[in-house]
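[job 4417] fold queue: 2 targets
>>> target A
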Amino acid sequence: MGEDDPRLLLLVDRDSAQIRVTASIAARAGWRTHTVSDGIAALAYLHARDSEKPQALLLDSLVAREDSCQLIGDIRAQAPGLPILFLTHSASPLLAVEAMRAGATDYLMKPIAAERMLYALESSVGADGNHDELAPLTEKIEAPLDFDMMIGSAPNFRDAMARAAKGARGHAPVLITGEPGTGKELLARAMRSASPRSKAPFVVLHTAGMSAGNLESAIYGHEKGAFPGAFDRRVGCLQDADGGTLLIDDIERLPPALQNRLARTIETGEARPMGATHSFRLDVRIIATAGEEHGLLVEHGVLDPALAQAMSGCTLHLPPLRARHGDIAPLARHFLALIGEQPGLRRLGVTDDALALLEGYEWPGNLRQLQAVLFRAVVFCDRDALTVQDFPQLFDLVGDSIPSVAQAVHGGGITLFGADGHLRTLEEIEADVIRLAIGHYRGRMSEVARRLGIGRSTLYRKLGDLGIDNAA
């Protein structure tokens, strides 16, 4: 198969309606599909020498039911490098966890969201077992949606949060920009939760993979017979969100004419469905996300100037994770707490060396990728804390820089966890802190005691109890 040939997705499914939806979504990204109805047929197809080799496989959990994990293992044995996407109807990630342990690359929840499936397919292209560790997962772990969940202390991040908290109280349109995976949708949801419209309708439109005609209909709706194929009347997102908030993800994907029309709607508060002879007034706050900063969107010609002006009242930019390395440790602990609450998983700690390893990576997939890496590590970890050995690919990429990162970020080598992944004793940690303080303040014991919040006599008693030479 040539580089420009359509890629092949092998569907293991027997639901005709689901098959049509999946094939349609995949076709938008240039994928062809071949469908088999059960696991036996899938294994036979993969084994046959004259069968075209697929670039990915999607397995519906309802095909094999309780034997899904066994089937995944059999497929993995038959085709070791084949990305396996697991489709589950359960809201609980328990089955997805078991599927990943059996060899699945990624998982999707029913009903399939087009943009998430496309993201999973694109992430799977060229992936093999060595890439899985750093490949972003498609589904996200749900968490309470408020500003307390926006973790980070980097100045550029806290500035964005302060402006977002202030903007949340108003009614003006909001534009949130940032690289994929930086948390734009999470921030949008947090702003809505903190707004006067928190109890009103909230509608989300993901534009990825949608055609221009479908986008216009999705936003404005259409009357029956408005265009070929419009067999029924459709209510658009604007009308669904009347009185509340409409979140448009990746607004730069809207075609220029639709962007201009949306700008007029924001200005006038009026919208007309496709094929309608009348307009209706509405009260909708629009929050939009985009991949580039406000000025660059206009400069690069991907955002209509009129829409850019309409959305300019409150613009926020979320920095990439590589620009806020100091936030990686608290974010990792936060994600581990959320992951540990999922069925089939448990809350794990993380060693300082492992944190230093995480901090040494650039994270092109940002928060989404960090969470995915931690999720996979927890799935396969059998200790009480994640260590460097739980991130083998990451270690291959940045392992040589771990000592300098650990020294810079973790206070001269003070660690909370031992090499076995277990917490060190409080006495050991306390001794390290005191030694660090003595060295930092050059043996000035009064200053050491003051900074540690204890008296000089208590400090000297601790030195004796811990066997520390105050000249250390």
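>>> target B
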Amino acid sequence: MHVALLASTGRAGRTILDELVRRGHHVTAVARNLDKLPEGLPETVTAVQDGLTSVDRIAEIIRGADAVVSAFGPSSSDPRYSTDISYTDQMVSVTERLIAAVREADAPRLIVVGGAGSLEFSPGVTVLKSGYWPEPYVNIATSHMKAFAALRASDINWTYFSPPMLITPGERTGQFRLGGDSLIKDAEGKSLISFEDYAVALVDELEKPAHERARFTAGY
């Protein structure tokens, strides 16, 4: 499979790239700064520099791919991340450009690395409104929800992959549970997954589509 992976050097993008390479897929790895890509990538990976600012340029890059994966997210190291929703709303504008580019390139599928805020924490209550969501991350959760709404309103073949409340670097176990619109919690009430297992679940979905024009989530 030929996968166009956008924002391939962030925390999610890097582990998804590793998983795609591990499984032998051909990858167009798109990044703003190519120096952040790992060294020694195989010939199955083509690196392309782009900042996802132009619909036409994105369409040019993804044309011919079997699927497009967007791991884009505003940098959390920027102080505006927790204070300025116009900064985190980059999530929305980039998603809108991706929708237009996927349509222009006639790409078969777009999978978006999403947010947890819109998941149902309990019946009728989202994670964002549950009282358990950290205040510094309200803006990014809100921006993710706007991006999700844009996907749902579009006519492309999209999939939105929400992580659990906590996603951290860890182990690739391949052992996790999948869900739809409800938050997955373990026996102790914790909602978490490693970036490595998140990548496994995403590439599984690429290889065997089960959530086209839908949202899904994963957790232990």
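[job 4417] complete. Note on B: The helical segments are 11-22, 55-62, 85-88, 90-105, 138-152, 195-207.
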